[in-house]
Structure formats: structure tokens, C-alpha cells
Amino acid sequence: MSFCAAVLTLYPEMFPGHLGISLAGRALERGDWSLETVQIRDFATDRHRTVDDTPAGGGAGMVMRADILARAIDHAAPQGDPRPKLLMSPRGKPLSQARVRQLASGPGAVIVCGRFEGVDQRVIEARGLEEVSIGDYILSGGEPAALVLLDAVVRLLPGVMGNEASGTEESFEGGLLEHPHFTRPQEWEGRAIPEVLTSGNHAKVAAWRREQAERLTRERRPDLLAVRLPD
User: Fold this and answer.
1) Which of 33, 108, 152, 158 has minimal Cβ neighbours within 10 Å of its Cβ?
2) What is the CATH number of the domain that holds 34?
């Protein structure tokens, strides 16, 4: 069974975006994964195809309506659909490589892209939406975040990447940042490739890469090391 993604959005023309080219695009053409876009406005009932309204209690901006969004979700994921339903949201749980791997091993995902000030809380609860964040910053809408999530997932699907080892030897896979990389020429602007990498000693190369990964993680993301340490 291939990974089936359904994206609910006000801007379906933003998809597949960069996922339509390179390895992900070729995998999409082969049918290794599929992408359906659902225009949320198609489920509005007025002639203006309105999907939002003023926030209860007052305040700036507009809020996406529960009834309209629920109809779009029910269309994309009828009762019994096993795919997780995700809402891209800055208040969601941070997306991790572990969660990406879980999604990649499943049947797909239904991804809701919010706009305006947010989504009516009632539809989040009633449809069991899992709120997911890609970082502590605000975007104009959930579409860029959905593309990031799909990019991370699709590259892990069987057959998408040319070198399967690439998916397990990268930042966050082992709880560490990735080690530095080098390639030809041997020397560039007076900077040489570390000798250990040209020694041919695979054990020493592995040890050096591990040490460098730990060093970079200590310097740049000590929070990752804290997660790795037992209580």
C-alpha cells in the first residue's frame, strides 16, 4: 500500500510544489505515494464560499468555521479511514524525526492547513485533529508547514531515496546532529580534508564521525543530549 496524503487547503495550487520534482516528484509519478488536494471552500454553503467568521468574544482577525471544515474533513477521510488527521499549527507538538518515521510507515495522512487566526476549537476536538508544529514561528498559513512535513515523510518511503542508508545516517536519526561532510578536492583554499577520512580505516572513520556528531550536538543542540540521557 502506498502512502496516501490528502491536504485540505484554501490554496490547492500550492501543491505539490517542490514535491513534484526531483526524487519525490519521480516517486509521485511512479505511484510510490499519492497526493489529493481538497479545496475547503467547496464545502461552504453561501454564494461567496465563506469559510471564516469573527472570533467569539471579540478580537482581531477571523476564525475558520467548524461546520465547513468538518464537512471537508469528512469528505477527505470518511468514517473508518485509518489515516491520522493532522492540523498544522504553531501551538502543536513539535514535529520530530520519530513522528516522521511513524507517519512514513503508515497508510498516509490527512493534513489540514489552517489560515487566518486559527481553527474553531470544536472541530479540532470533534474530528480528533493532531496539532503539529514545525517550529516556534508564525507562517501565513499551514501550507508551507504541510509541504515540510510531507517532504520529511516522503523521502523515507521505500524506493524514494537512491541510497537507503541516507535515511538512517542523518541529523536526529540517532538523537544527534549529523557529522561534517567533505569531498574532493583534497585541499581547497588551504583547508584539507581530515586525514582520518582518507585513511581507509572504517572503524576510525566511524569513531571520528561519532565524536564530531556528539561535539556538534553539545555545542548547538544540548537539549537533544538531555533527551538522550536516562533519568
Assistant:
1) 158
2) 3.40.1280.10
